Every structure is written in C-alpha cells, then in structure tokens.
Amino acid sequence: MTALRVVFVIISVSVSVSFVAAQSASATDSTEAVPILVELFTSEGCSSCPPADVLLQRMDELQPVAGAHLIVLSEHVDYWDHDGWKDPYSSHLFTDRQSAYVGVLGLSTPYTPQMIVDGAGVLQNNNSQQAEQVFQKAEAAQKIPVRINSIRVEGTTPPVLQARIEVGENSDKHSADIYLAVALGHAESQVLRGENGGHHLTHVAVVQSLTRIGKLEKGKAFSQDVQVKLKPGTDPANLRVIAFVQETGPRQVLGAALRMVGK
Asked: CA 35: distance to chain centroid?
C-alpha cells in the first residue's frame, strides 16, 4: 500500500472505515491491479452487520488499496434466521464455508460480521495496523491469472448464465480448487422483524450461488465452459461473476477475477 493507508475505526459494535491518502493518485486500472478477494460473512438478522455491509460497499466503490483490485463478496449466513427475521439472501452453504474458515484459521467461533481477506487473513476490530498488514500480505502474494470470457445470459425459464473460465498455469506444488460465484451487484431489503426490524438495508455483491467448477492441478492450466442456472426474474444487468482459485481447506486464494454481466 504505497499510496493509501487503510484505517479502521471501530465505534462500539459498529464498523466503519476511512481512507487516508498519502499522496494524490488516480484510481488503479483493475486489469493491472493485484486482485484481492474480500469475503464478508453477514446477516440481516444481526444488528452489528449493517455498518459492515456499508464498509464493503465503500471498499467496492472507492478501491482504497493502491495497486490492488478488491473483489468483494457478501455471503449471508443462516444462523441468525431463527431470531425473528429470515434473511432472504441467506444460505447454509455460506454458514458451512465460514465454519470451514474457523477451523483452518484457528478461530474460536464463527461470528458476524466477519471479513476474510484472500482466505488467509481476518480483519480484526479496532486494529488498523493489523488491517494494513493483512492487505499488504495479500497484495504481495504471487497470483495465478484468472480470466472470465464469453459471458452471456440466455433463455428466460430459467435464465442460464454461460461463461468461459481460464486459469493460468499453477506453479505451486499443491493443486487448488476453482470456484465460480454469481452475485447481485446491488440488493436491498425492508426488514420487518428481528434486531434490524424497521430498517432498510442495502448490500453489494450478494452471492446467489457459489460452485466449485474444477481443480487446478499442479503444473497445469485450466480452461472450461460453464453454465449456471439463475433464479427466475434475475436481472442480468445486476449480476457479477467472480471466479477464483483457492487452496483446498478453504485456505489461501491464489487468484481471482470479476466480470459485470451487464457491462
């Protein structure tokens, strides 16, 4: 982070962020920047989650880490659904994914909101120095190039997203998994009950599906056409497709790419 310093300010249970520029710099071209995957485990039933949802939106919009492209994912867990409000975006798949991170990263328990960077670093509350170190480590890590090509949505009942995923050669001594996430660029809810009852919530990059599409063998590249059925009524202009390579565990993310379907 040569141009920008990330400062996390935690007030009570709320999470906010300010970005302090060390010098004037224009936005980094995402095609040249180092991709960093930022996963937020969140829930509409959790009163401390809305500020983290806003934080993720600001990361997505402002791209505060110089030389990096933050690819954000909002993964709504389901263990808050019993507490008065069923999150319409929640899935047990994300609860299981977060639980797997807890085991691999040696954490005591899953919680919301929780941000995990490149599958290897957890952003800690009220610790700006730790956050800066997490992003520096992610930016310095060697990445495998990932590309999403020939992306389109066809049909209406239900619509089907088609794309070609290409991943560069894996020089690591271990094989890795390749995932494809389909996410809503923007989503919102009027929460009627639970801890956030009466609040209008907005979200970014809300994952609708997360599919393991293949394995990247050591010393080899990967190329494959994929198809994903979308939910009826899905607006293609509001979709993002994210492909990423991750060590099995889930552990460190080795490469990632983002494409907006409607652009």
From this structure: 11
What tokens does 210 get?
């997360």
Nearest to 257 by CA among 236, 247, 243: 243
Phi, psi of 238 (to 5 degrees): -110, 20
Torsion sign across C-alpha atoms 232, 242, 222, 248: negative
pLDDT for 114-170, tens place per residue?
999 999 999 987 678 888 999 999 999 999 999 999 999 988 788 999 999 999 998
Q: What's the pTM value of the predicted model, to 2 decimals?
A: 0.89
Q: Are 261 and 162 a contacting pair, CB within 8 Å?
A: no
| Per-domain residue ranges of the chain | 4-260
Q: What is the dihedral of CA 65, 60, 259, 35, to 10 degrees?
A: 20
Pairing assessment for the beta strands 68-76 and 34-42 based on DSSP bridges? parallel
CATH of domain 4-260: 2.60.40.10
Lowest-pLDDT range of 20-34, 95-109, 118-132, 244-258: 20-34
Environment class of residue 48 by beta-carbon count within 10 Å: exposed (0-12), middle (13-18) or buried (19+)? Answer: middle
DSSP 42-59: E-TT-TTHHHHHHHHHHH
